[in-house]
Amino acid sequence: MKFTHTQNKFSRLSSLKFIGLGLLLITIAGISSCKKSYLDIIPDNVATLDNAFANRNEAEKYLFTCYSYLPQEGHPDKNPGFNGGDELWIYWPFQTDYFFLDPYNIARGLQNKANPYLNYWDSFDGRSLWQGIRTCNIFLENVEKVPDLQPYEKARWIAEAKFLKAYFHWYLFRMYGPIPIQDKNLDITASPEQVKVSRQPVDSVVNYITRLIDDAAAGDDNTGLPSRITSAATELGRITKVAALSIKARVLVTAASPLFNGNTELGGMKNKNGQALFNTQYDAAKWTRAVDACKAAIDLAEANGVILYHFNPGVINVDDATKTQMNIRNAVCEKWNSELIWGSTASANPTFWLQLFACPQLDQNNINLDLKGQMAPTLKMAELFYTKNGVPIEEDKTWDYANRFKLRPTPSGDPNLQADYQTVGLHVDREPRFYADIAFDGAKFFMKNGNFNIQSKAEQYSGKKQSRLYSITGYYTKKLVNWNLVATSTNVTVESYPWPIIRLTDLYLLYAEALNESGRSAEALPYLNQIRDRAGLKSIESSWSTYSKNPGKYTSVSGLREIIQQERGIELAFEASRFYDLRRWKTAPQVMSTPIYGWDINQTSFEDFNKRVLLFSPKFTGPRDYFWPIKEYDLQINPNLVQNPGW
């Protein structure tokens, strides 16, 4: 769907603080003629559950109510993975142009237990995931009452509700660690003691989630979930077997990771009755289980036509460098592309605001304040990407690491940089994913309607000109902007795309990680190399052997682990993955406690602009910051719940 937004209407919106869902929906309803996604349908006012399941149409509405509790994972202020970590930064104090301040406060170390930010346990953005689970249970308890529902359709709907129940448990587990299991709703006559549930051990929660997913994914296409969506007009965004098995793979890789597998740091976390919630003994079998789950998901995905995306420019002539960049960008931004396994349609325009928040001013002749350009990659992310030789910048023996912050002229004929310009060495001779994902002063920004030059020193059209709507680091998140976006001085047309909850590249990386941790490192390399080939890089074996100061790094489990983690950080940069990856690897206390730097965006000259500026010194404290706190009030209501360590 393309969403056209006029300047005069947007100017009213940009002056508001969006602090509640009601205000947001009322405001957007007034400026948009788009309908809500069919998965957001809420049942009509029904007096009883009997009415809700009186016929197929009412029951289908109730199923879509189960879907409506899915978090809006493609929204910059509703998914902590975007602005709650160290990938992106924002100017501060942040007084306008936001919906919720929650992720920005988390990034600045302000999470608290009195009124937790992004509190999906109780309610955030109108969503309590426990209520979502309860709604799924109600559906499963009542769907047999529907008189005009065909058996094959009933089987599919039951499978969808089971998967959604599993997914809501998974989402809470990833945020809060060991959680209660709500397999059935408590009866209205339940005693006060029955209502006071306890948290379940990590292994029990994981086994419950994966068992539910297995139930949902069982059978063939005629007895449960379809393997692929065939009715694109009415069903895109609904669950498939491929999506279910892929999420199961993600759950099991997470469960096998250091945060949950043999974590002695959390050995003291116990229920009030003394039951341990973390198994402190490392279990290699968890990685074997993850390997099997990843392989099953990959096999089913590939059997159903899911392949790595490659850009087709159509009638537009583009050079090879641009094609490679678009292989990377459009693997995320092209709607329902060949790589997408499950895309979020949790609102009618799931990535509309994400793109406006990410995109800078592209055209000096068409300035439009709808393009905020405020989602600013940090300098540490710019340093994460490889050199053009496919190895880390500090390892490449042919790349000038020591002088990476020194100013230099842009090389003649470089397709990624503006001619006759100046930039720092850090921006020269980098891999295609760097130029595909990040824009900066002196970079080019390819769109369907032109190849734009980014000039972002102070007072330039892409740079800071006022107290809002600018990048605090001097970098812009090019990767998240669909190439069909068109801006004039009076309106912006945005082609929203489903947010990729999981895509094939992610699944390949999970599989490679699980193989390596299982001692099968050589089997991991082909999957990593497919990703690198699509990104215009040579194989790991060739790149490390030829260019790295540590040529044998990939031959050991620990060395390949480091490579896989960096590959994952690069390939999934700005896709809300790093936030949780650093936690499950238990590297967050080191990585996320390093300073946040940017360029001196208040300067007008090349020399002054291209100087590092310290923006913030974060502190990730383990084990406290691995998980969200449970709200203090909830612990008072239910004394059987124990708080997460450190809170």
From TrEMBL:
<keyword id="KW-0998">Cell outer membrane</keyword>
<protein>
    <submittedName>
        <fullName>RagB/SusD family nutrient uptake outer membrane protein</fullName>
    </submittedName>
</protein>
<dbReference type="InterPro" id="IPR033985">
    <property type="entry name" value="SusD-like_N"/>
</dbReference>
<dbReference type="InterPro" id="IPR012944">
    <property type="entry name" value="SusD_RagB_dom"/>
</dbReference>
<keyword id="KW-0732">Signal</keyword>
<keyword id="KW-0472">Membrane</keyword>
<comment type="similarity">
    <text>Belongs to the SusD family.</text>
</comment>
<dbReference type="Pfam" id="PF14322">
    <property type="entry name" value="SusD-like_3"/>
</dbReference>
<dbReference type="Pfam" id="PF07980">
    <property type="entry name" value="SusD_RagB"/>
</dbReference>
<feature type="domain" description="RagB/SusD">
    <location>
        <begin position="339"/>
        <end position="647"/>
    </location>
</feature>
<feature type="domain" description="SusD-like N-terminal">
    <location>
        <begin position="113"/>
        <end position="251"/>
    </location>
</feature>
<dbReference type="InterPro" id="IPR011990">
    <property type="entry name" value="TPR-like_helical_dom_sf"/>
</dbReference>
